[in-house]
Structures are given as C-alpha cells and as structure tokens.
## 1
Amino acid sequence: MKTVIQRVDSASVSVDGKTVGSVDKGFLVLFGAEMGDSERDCEKLAAKICGLRIFSDEQGKINRSLKDVGGGLLVISQFTLLADCKKGNRPSFLNACEPEKANRLYEYFCALCEKEIPRTERGIFGADMSVKLTNNGPFTIILECKNGEIL
C-alpha cells in the first residue's frame, strides 16, 4: 500500500465540475492499494498518518499533528501510485489491487481516519477526478506499508 501525504492550506476534489470533497488546513492523501494488501496495512497507515507531527508549534518546530491543529484530511484513491516503470516508457499497473478489493480497502482506510480526524473527506473511487491544492511548505511525505509494517 502506498500513500503520498501533502500538507496543504486547502485542497479539493471535483467530479464532472462538482466539488465532492474539500478541506482547509490539513493533509491531502493519495492512496494506492497493491496486490496482497490487507486491512492491517490500512490500520497501520491510518494510525501513522493521523499521528504525523508535521505542523509547526509556537516555537516554529515541526511538532504538531493534524489533530493538534484541528486540520482536515482529504483522501483520494489513486491506483497510478502502483505504476511500474522499469521496462519501456509505458507504465504497467499489474501490481495494483483489483478494483473491488481496492475500493473496499480505500473505504476501510477512510473510515479509520474518520475515527481520528472528524473532518475526513474523500474523492469518488474510480472516477475521473480533478484535484486542486495549495501546498503548505511544500511538505510531501511518501509512506508505504507491506504486511502490516511501515516501510
């Protein structure tokens, strides 16, 4: 399972010109499920992301979490995170989880996040989405989890 976390001042996702999710200060999380991923991977990643301390405190130290700053979370499913570009110039997506299971894992991940971060928004799985964001920093972290272990 792969995620890309971006600290944002604002982020939104729209489908067919209609906004389906948005947050102000918080994280935009791109989420990709890989063949063999499980609920355990979702649990580990959700706990890690919701607890990440990447906001500044009063002294300017990167020491505050999403909860500490009352931030929101926008989670977008993105199978292209699993692109394999080793051969040729056309990415292969054979390692991406099959859609039905990927959607189930995505929804489970979002539900876990909602328990910790009440303002958790999401895109629409499988839709052609337009994502807008204003990075804060920019501050971008890539997290992966395999067999219940953060890599």
## 2
Amino acid sequence: MSKRKKKSSSGRSFDVKRLPRHLQHINIHAAGIDIGSEKHWVAVPEGRDEVAVREFGAFTADLQALADPDMSGCGVTTVAMESTGVYWIALFELLERRGFEVKLVNARHVKNVAGRKSDVLDCQWLQQLHT
C-alpha cells in the first residue's frame, strides 16, 4: 500500500504505518490471477504497468504471453492463483518454469468474502491478499 493515508470503510482515514506489523504489506512484488476456463485475469501492483488488471486467453500462446514480459517486467516475483477445476495446472507449471514463486489458493476459501462479484475484483483481491 502507498504511504498516504487511506479511508476505511467507516469513512475515517488511517495511516498504513500505524497498522500492526503483521498487517502491513510484506510481499510488494505479488500478482493475483483469477483462473477461468476461457479467460485468466491478472492483477499486478498499482503503478507497475499502464494497466493494473489484464485479461488473457487460456490457450498456450496466451499463457506464454502472460508469463513472459508482462509480469516479470512489472517486477512481479510471486503469484497467487485460484485452483479452479483443472484450468490452473498449465499456467502453474509454466509460471514455475519461468522462475515465479506460485501459490495455489483454494477458490472456495477466497470466494467466501462478500462483495466480490467479478473476475476483475477476484484477481485484485487475490493480489491484495498475497501482498
């Protein structure tokens, strides 16, 4: 998170530095990927790329494009992704071979958080949790 003050859900502002140490971001080079059967949505840290969230297809060429300069060029070294069906396997293996630290998240546990209704929000939430 940036060093500026953020507004809480109650509308009051708080300073990130005042958060307990265990709640501060410790993994600032993290990305989040929402896995789908036809599309994968990737969120990288804000300010690292022109677009913080991108859509990629699920074919081999799309997966290679996702793993090539798009994430490593943004300074991403680690990725959190959902374990949706069998669709995560090819991307997981490709990212590991390219040197990324990949964490697999149980989609049921992540989906239990209220208020997230889209793939874009899901990948951003995964990225936020992984930081």
